[in-house]
Structures are given as C-alpha cells and as structure tokens.
Amino acid sequence: MRVLVQKVREGARLPSRAHEDDAGYDLYACARTVLAPGSRASIATGIALALPEGYAALVWDKSGLSHRHGLKTLGGVIDAGYRGEICVGVVNLGEAPYTVEKGDKIAQLLLQKVESAEWEEVAALPESARGARGFGSTGKR
C-alpha cells in the first residue's frame, strides 16, 4: 500500500518501523514537551497523511513508554479524508515529570482496513451464549 506523507514542520520525520514485521509505524515528536505527572499534551508530529480510501490509521501507545514511564496516548483515529497534521494526545500517568525531546518516538500508527455497515434497527437482538453479561462476567482468574 502506498501512503502519501507531507512534512508540515521543519525537522519532521516520516513514520517508520524498527523491524520489517512490526505492526505499527513509529511516530516522532516534532518539538520538546515536558509532561508533569497527571498532565496532558497534544504532541505535534509534523506530518500529514493521505490514506487510501477505505483505510484508517489508529494511534496507539509505545509499550516501553507506557510500561516504564506511565505515558499513555489518548487514542485517535485518522480518517482517509483528513489532511491536517497528526498530533498525538498524551497523558502522563507516572509519578515523575517526563520530557519528550524532538525526534523521540511518541506513539505508533496502525493502518487498518475500514468496513462500512448498514445499521438496522430491531426491536430485539438475537440471543447469544454471553447475552448482556459485561465487565467481570467471566469471573476473576
């Protein structure tokens, strides 16, 4: 698949993978940002995309940042029609300030095919083995 990428800030880096079989493409911070514990920030990547029709890009955590430092992305869906700069919402759930330097890997981008649905309203849903049992319904293990 070919994805068109435009650098919209000086020093921006294109998404990349460390390994050929990685699912996600690393996104890089385009500026220095300091996140105090409990604070949120929108971190610019300096890039804009033109995804092929029928695809979306999903923003996910870098596992090392989330596990070691408590840095969590606030998610995000980039639609095929969006042409603006990709910014990553981040919250510091850790106990210490965290500094994101320009050029640091900040999140990863997963490309996903999007299916269209026709929504049909019904009076009742068909039965299933699980039914309406939600959170914790399978017990603690």
Rg over C-alpha atoms, rounded to the nearest angstrom = 19 Å
Strand proportion, as a percent range, falls in 35-45%
Q: Report the span from N to C terminus.
A: 41 Å
CATH superfamily: Deoxyuridine triphosphatase (dUTPase)
Number of helices: 1
Largest sheet: 4 strands, antiparallel
Order of helices and strands: EEEEEHEEEEE
Please report the first level of CATH classification, the CATH class: Mainly Beta
Overall pLDDT confidence: 94
Taken from the alpha-carbon principal axes, the silhouette is globular
CATH T-level fold name:
Deoxyuridine 5'-Triphosphate Nucleotidohydrolase, Chain A
SS class: mainly beta
Description:
By secondary structure, the protein is mainly beta. Helices cover 5% and strands 38% of the residues. It contains one helix and ten strands. The protein has one helix at 63-69, and strands at residues 4-7, 25-28, 33-35, 40-50, 55-60, 71-73, 77-79, 85-92, 98-100, 105-113. It is globular, with a radius of gyration of 19 Å.
